[in-house]
Amino acid sequence: MSALSGNAAATPAVALRGVHATYTERGLRVEALHDVNLTVARGEFVSVIGPSGCGKSTMLNLIAGIDRPSAGEIAVDGRSAIGHTGLVAHMPQRDLLLPWRTTLQNAVLGPELRGEPDREARALAQLDRFGLEGFADAYPHMLSGGMRQRAAMLRTILLDRDTLLLDEPFGALDALTRGEMQEWLLGIWTELARTVLFVTHDVEEAIFLSDRVYVMSRRGTMKLEVAIDLPRPREREMTTSPSFVEAKRTLLRSLLAETQR
User: Fold this and answer.
1) Is 195 within 8 Å of 162 (Cβ atoms)?
2) Per-residue pLDDT tens for 8-59?
């Protein structure tokens, strides 16, 4: 069955079928993605891990409609996403907050570009939930790393899309702040009932957050899919459970095989 067909109840939030992506650099043809197949059900939290340069960010750019694949199907809620921006909310690796805009002004950038009249009221109502109460008028250089990421996440949420693409949003944070942000994100995800496709280099982070984890190979293809058998809500003590340890062992073994190639 095509990713673009089927009834609405069974239609995944995101579906990639046989996706290839190539580009030319200095006269050489480089294949970033090779025959990628991936699905994310509505309301699911799915992570993708893999070696640096394996095509994880490229894949998110394709789903977001920023780039076009060389071959294959990409669908968001049953609709082709190839060349169509705005179907998902995409948060890149860097927070990309504009230094001349306040927290509030950065958060409402998307709604502002769409001309939504109530954008500031919507954002102000969310500041407390995002741990930014009292910082509406603060500029990015006045915020901590975690606060900057929450501001960027608020900007992403205010795009009002059912599916979020998050590209290593916590990669630049220290270990303590990163752990706090993981728990905060799970709370937001549960409360807002969004679909999340999350890219990370951190195996423990992927397991703690996700329903399923995909492993990408150096060749830019999906080599492994692991279901995470942990109850929700997640608690930090779960990281020592047999299910967590077994999932970590399986994922690390797969990643190590790629680093030794």
Assistant:
1) yes
2) 558 999 999 999 999 877 778 888 999 999 999 999 999 999 998 899 999 9
Quick one: how far is CA 229 from the chain centroid?
Answer: 21
Q: Which residues, at least 6 apart from 86, have a Cβ–Cβ distance to it below 8 Å? A: 65, 161
Number of helical H runs and strand E runs in the chain? 8, 10
Report the distance separating Cα 57 and Cα 67, nearest Å: 11
Please give the Cα distance from 115 to 108 (Å, whole number): 10
199-254 residue pLDDT tens: 999 999 999 999 999 999 998 999 999 999 999 999 999 999 999 999 999 999 99
* Residue indicated by tokens 């200095």: 26
Q: Is the C-alpha dihedral spanning 161, 172, 67, 140 positive or negative? A: positive
pTM comes to 0.90
Structural domain range at position 114: 94-160
Q: Does residue 51 belong to any structural domain of this protein?
A: no
Say how many domains are in the chain: 1
Contact between 89 and 196 under an 8 Å Cβ cutoff? The reply is: no
